[in-house]
Amino acid sequence: MADHLDLHTVGDLLHHYPRRYAERGELTRLSDLPLDEHVTVVAQVADARVHTFNGGRGRRLEVTITDGSGRLQLVFFGKGVHKPRTELQPGTRAMFAGKVSVFNRKRQLAHPEFKTLGAGSGAEAVEAFANQLLPLYPACKQMESWQIQQAVDTVLGPAGHEESALAGLIDPLPESLREGRGLATLPEALRKIHRPGTKADIATARDRLKWDEAFVLQVALARRRQADAQLPAAPRKPAPDGLLTAFDARLPFTLTEGQRRVSEEIFADLATDHPMHRLLQGEVGSGKTMVALRAMLGVVDAGGQAAMLAPTEVLAQQHHRSITEMMGELAEGGMLGGAEQGTKVVLLTGSMGAAARRQALLDLVTGEAGIVIGTHALIEDKVQFHDLGLVVVDEQHRFGVEQRDALRSKGKQPPHLLVMTATPIPRTVAMTVFGDLETSVLDQLPSGRSPIASHVVPAKDKPHFLARAWERVREEVAAGHQAYVVCPRIGDEEDEPRAAKEKSAEDEAEKRPPLAVVDVAEQLVKGPLRDLRVEVLHGRMQPEAKDEVMRRFAAGEVDVLVATTVIEVGVNVPNATAMVIMDADRFGVSQLHQLRGRVGRGSAAGLCLLVTDMPEGSPARARLGAVAATLDGFELSRIDLEQRREGDVLGQAQSGVRSSLRVLAVIDDEEVIAAAREEAAAIVAADPELAGYPQLRTALDALLDKERAEFLDKG
To answer: Which of 365, 596, 582 lies closest to 487 in space, CA to CA?
Structure first.
């Protein structure tokens, strides 16, 4: 149990809640069984026959079960035939668990685990039996649902005596809060979630247990905010007629309403004497870089320095290029021809030559350079700042806690922090995952951005749609535009098939390896796009080669760029109007949205074609349909989250820890999270050390075990 389900203590077991409940009258319908998944069904044996093969030496038991909605075949072989043969007589009702497979075009369970359900003779007994709610637990092959139920039953003891078994539990909710909100006690909630008499019992239990999760998490975040607010920082107020004023005067356009509002929030934070911690969310192209640049210029005006960290060298170079272009002669402070209130803007990356690197480091330590842009090469020990006042982190989810701390230690006092992300995060997730950051949202696109039409191209069902897609690419190129073709894989790996194995087999399309840049480019050059200028771009190319291809694409010397997701972040070519995403079902919703944001950046309308082999009606096709149907990133992030469930939200993906959220659904329980945040803030403000709440402290320590504390720190 410990190994497979990460359940080590009695407490872990009691907090391993049923995923759902089967009512013996209302069963998992046999007609709806999903392929390749572990299922639990309750059904009646209709028929059982033993077949012999291999001249009588081999034996196979075939049992047909039914639940009224459909029939299912069970098969048992060899020595495994004896027990089911005696116990599964026609008419017997039982629970069966196993993995659904297909044999001879029929669904079946091979060697399922089973447990017969005794039949009471009287109508009342059958009624009571049918209405009892059977908890079905998140299970695995080594530990079936009813084995978990048996373990829980052992811990809870006989019916009616559960409260004594649960008496010593640590209850994180302060009594006054629990009573004020009308929530059940913890023993009552645990009894009702594991042994509900009615559906109302389940609802009561879940309401209480959701609060535990939301509240403990929000207390953890409130304490981080409190600790951060105690740190000293130098207030940075821009000089009245300095660099920022000169920059604003140069701008060829006016800022959007949103950009002005968010800038005001940021400048208000920068003027205080504790460090700003702000998350800036904005769609691709909403002008986040402009807002961040104005904040950096304001800090330089106030005599400090600003650093911008990008996740990759390509992106750091691109930010450097666009920022120096936006600033013009203001980026040449101290140089001939530079403006007098200008400053130096330096780039610092791992692959720079020694001489350029030495000069950049010198400019930083003397304060000559007001702005530095780089990768995490910026946080190496060797890099010293004259007076670091602001750190801007681009795409924070690629950026860890050690890096943030290392950067903080570069300032005489902790610098202000602005985190930017182009992945829209629903408000509740922001409150849960980035709860220690204040949030600003840029939700309007600057004028001049064009709409993007998106369509799903079902290549397998309708091959002529794919042919038409390539025609559309040729039409865009003929009109003087350019196109991207994105593939999930590079194609020169030795371990080719691995990528295919990790997927669930939705159908044949899942079984073949994902399409590769190298192969697709070759097919396009020989076939539908022959005589166009086609180039490839992927992460395994040398940095110089990558830059050269990007430069030529940006200069219009390449018609079609066949690339991996290296183009996902920050590539800006306004003349590129079309994007074809191959095997689009292999990408996540927010990733598709990010990729799509690379077209329609100029005055011409954008086109994004999502190519897939997935059959109609499959979840993958539904996901692609959702992406094609809306350009609203916040709406898509909700869909993405509902599909992935919240396992990833608290960083399962990042820290490998099972999600701490068991009953709390980040999307649906917005009110609970918001209320828990308020209660947590009030308690932490009144008693930062939680001296009056020993049980809450214990629960907090359990939540913030080492790995999760690290993940929260990454926030």
So the answer is: 582
